[in-house]
Amino acid sequence: MFERRSLAALLAVSLMAPAAPALADEEVLRRTANNGNLVMEDVPEIPASIVSDLNRYQNVRSASFQAWDADGSALYVRTRFGDVPQIHRVAQPGGARTQLTFFSEPTGGVSRQPNGDRMVFTMDAGGSEFAQIFLLDPQSSDDAVMLTDGSSRNGMVVWDRAGESVAYLSTRRNGSSNDVWMMQVDNPETAEMVLESPDGTMWGPSDFYADDQKLLILNYVGNADSRVHLLDLETRQLSRLAGDPDNPSSNFPFGFDREGEGFYFITDQGGDFRQLAWQSLAPGADPEVVTGDINWHVEGGAISDDRRKIAFTVNEDGFSRLYLMDGDSREFRAVDAIPTGVIGNLAFSPDGRSLAMTLNTPQTPSDTFVLALGEDPMSYAGLTRWTFSEVGGLDTDSFAVPDLVRYPTFDSSDGGPENIPAWVFRPEGEGPFPVIIAIHGGPESQSRPTFSSTYQMWVNKLGAAVIRPNVRGSNGYGKHYMGLDNGFKREDSVKDIGALLDWIATQPDLDQDRVAVFGGSYGGYMVLASAVHYSDRLKAAVDVVGISNFVTFLENTQDYRRDLRRAEYGDERDPDMRAHLEAISPNRHVDKITVPLFVVQGQNDPRVPVTEAEQIVAAMRAHGSPVWYMNALNEGHGYGKKENSDIYQQATVVFFEKFLVGDDEG
């Protein structure tokens, strides 16, 4: 039997003194679902009509590319046919997806053994994000074997070129430091730390040198400061190749070149955008920028096994453009055979003759595609779709395609950004439509024109327009734009939402009197902050795993990520910064939140602890304000299990129907 904390206990974690009579504990309606794993307070029963009406939207699948098999004749994808995504094998374009793993938890990233069939993948328990590394032989009927200790957090797994060992990030030493470890996969007892993190930042492997005696290392300090190092595995000597602590820049290792004389990496050392560069391994060498003529972020890519071919993608105003490059001459060309959308998970086949990818468009969920390549590193033929994910029988051709708009903000004429980009999904008809502003997390994430059955459900079932803004601090628009919300400038991004409300008021097809805000993680903070500042202009707010107080968040987030978050939000140990963070924290201002609030949380969230949700709920109730609260006891930072996410999505639609679309003032 699950025991909910009493209201008095909840109030103990709240920093907001009651300003109105608190709701009595017995006035809070509690119920559970999914064998007691989903706890709901003041969330009404979901009408059967809603469950039936949303069923198709909640049965949309995807199939993201994970890896090639050893001979390049088949692919491994991640898709869901039960409650959570698992690893499947696809033998031919349009072929059946043969399931290989059968866990009750979703599997993470997959990496296949060089010159072999076995693969490693990661998986956590209950959304804790303390992922373990597993070894799977898809040619065997044996279950996957866990290689790591079962308690530390592990990730960034990289095979050596011999296919015998893996390097990976792990907190095994003390539970908090992000060190680099190695192990022989056939003998996990050989696991040893090869690089002890000298500070509280993240250190992880990227690529092995041809002789497996050197390792490229990423040191991630913050979203505007990351560095590349070279680790000699024999001497354990560490040398910094790119990035300067005294002049921070973003630098992400890509891989060693074919001759072993240098390495490729993504850097913004030379300008506002991240560019692909090559740099010699010689001491003191400077980077040679390859893509200097492209004024957008290079976002990622892949190198073929023989290092002759390179593929990379560029984020052009939210859309992906694919390029092929000759690894020797460093000449490149754009590929025009890809549908407009967002590309990820690039990987060359073992023979380098094909390039697999995940492609997502506004009207199609993520599926796996393969581009046929020529002998010349920059030549290509046709694109073949390998997976055709189910979309619940919906006509996705009728789905709304978002328009990219730009609106001025409060300081556009006073040194601030010229405009704020936003994606707008509009229903059919003339309106005026109610509006749901969906704010991304990060804070350095980016809203992109991707497929979302949730947004399409809101458009088609609620008749609401959905706006996804990229307020200052978002990625994809240069490092200057991304840094405009740092430190003491945090609430400037909230003012960008105020400017969006101004813009909505100028649009005849949008109803300025029916606007809701929705967001998760940092986007949850933005929802709460928007409710603090703009309750008189909003009708409802949905906060999913959001930050309600920056000080308690920084003090309670998992140890392994605390310093990374301090680099973004500010160090709460500094008195001036602590006072600022307290001053802008939403749970200190619940008296200003007058709109209905729905708070959604996962009990095992390592990023934004459950206490962030509990204290905003307690503070709202102490102030006499009703609030819906949903907490999944077997989830973490968001809902990964279908049975939980289904009820959460249904409850969100009920919430919007009651407080946004209808006339209920709450």
Automatic annotation (TrEMBL):
Coiled coil: none annotated. SUPFAM superfamilies: alpha/beta-Hydrolases (SSF53474), Peptidase/esterase 'gauge' domain (SSF50993). It comes from the Bacteria. Residues 1-24 form the signal peptide. It comes from Marinihelvus fidelis. This is S9 family peptidase. The keyword Flavoprotein does not apply. One of its GO terms (molecular function) is serine-type endopeptidase activity. Keywords: Hydrolase, Protease, Serine protease, Signal. Residues 450-659 form the Peptidase S9 prolyl oligopeptidase catalytic domain.
